[in-house]
Amino acid sequence: MTVASDPEVYDVAVIGGGPAGLSAALNLVRARRRVLLLDSNRPRNSATLLAHGFLTRDGISPLELRKLGREEVLRYDGAEHRMTIVESVTRVDAGFELACSMRNKQSTAVARTILVATGLHETLPEIAGLRAFYGTAFHSCIECDGYDKRDQRLAVIGEYPDLAERALFLTQWSNDLVVFTNGSDVVTLLEEEALDSRGIRVDRRAIAEVVGGRDGVTGLRLDDGEIADVVGGFVRPGWSSELDYLEGLAADLDADGLLVSDGHGRTTAAGVYVAGESAAPGPQQLIVAAGSGAKTATTINRDLVGGIGDLADAVQ
């Protein structure tokens, strides 16, 4: 049974309306919780035309998936949705007060617990034309889009130490690969030798621009003017969690700026939970994020119910 709460206080405020947040909200509202879903509708995969690997929804637009998810959540009594950005969260007697803003419209809400599912922000390498082809010819999620790039001549672009590992993983879908470090020194000589043994060349030159037009990508123009013959590929963006709105809640972050959790969605701050990409390991497939949301929802509901020990203490 749901613990009675003040009509103005939500059981859970879910911050973020991607697969993790929507899945959590759906499971919580089905647990008869009063749930407030707060979302700016600005996902990091907004440039992606089609999402893959989500059972029964393979090939769906990510924006359409979010739309369908919101509709499912809002069919239930106790669910409410606000299109807004959470600016700050502070502790109050009832739990947490959230200050929100969207297009100069201010609002507040109070919830007993909060679930952080705001995901990550992507920063692409500064290469002219890359943004125009991101989501069509170039992608970041190999598991999501590798199949659709199978057996093509592909570039693997990045400026992070996991670049060689990503290139090796991509060989499951194509062996016609070139690794571009874009002028950075992120592939060791040992890694280069290992990639070369698999027929993968490493090019350490900086990339000036992506060459292409309406018919797609025709190559990469390097700083020295040479054009590398590729038709697309995968790029390793930079990711940031942007969790400044939680400042003051004393929730621990790891070295990557992601929320530390106990494996069940509880952070180190009481009443603050996390699901999806805001916690380690970070970027995930949509279906994995959705599963994370469902798992954390169960944790939240059980914590709100309390245990036998809590009940025994209350009656003494």
Automatic annotation (TrEMBL):
<protein>
    <submittedName>
        <fullName>Thioredoxin reductase</fullName>
    </submittedName>
</protein>
<keyword id="KW-0560">Oxidoreductase</keyword>
<feature type="domain" description="FAD/NAD(P)-binding">
    <location>
        <begin position="10"/>
        <end position="293"/>
    </location>
</feature>
<keyword id="KW-0285">Flavoprotein</keyword>
<dbReference type="InterPro" id="IPR023753">
    <property type="entry name" value="FAD/NAD-binding_dom"/>
</dbReference>
<dbReference type="Pfam" id="PF07992">
    <property type="entry name" value="Pyr_redox_2"/>
</dbReference>
<dbReference type="InterPro" id="IPR036188">
    <property type="entry name" value="FAD/NAD-bd_sf"/>
</dbReference>
<dbReference type="InterPro" id="IPR050097">
    <property type="entry name" value="Ferredoxin-NADP_redctase_2"/>
</dbReference>
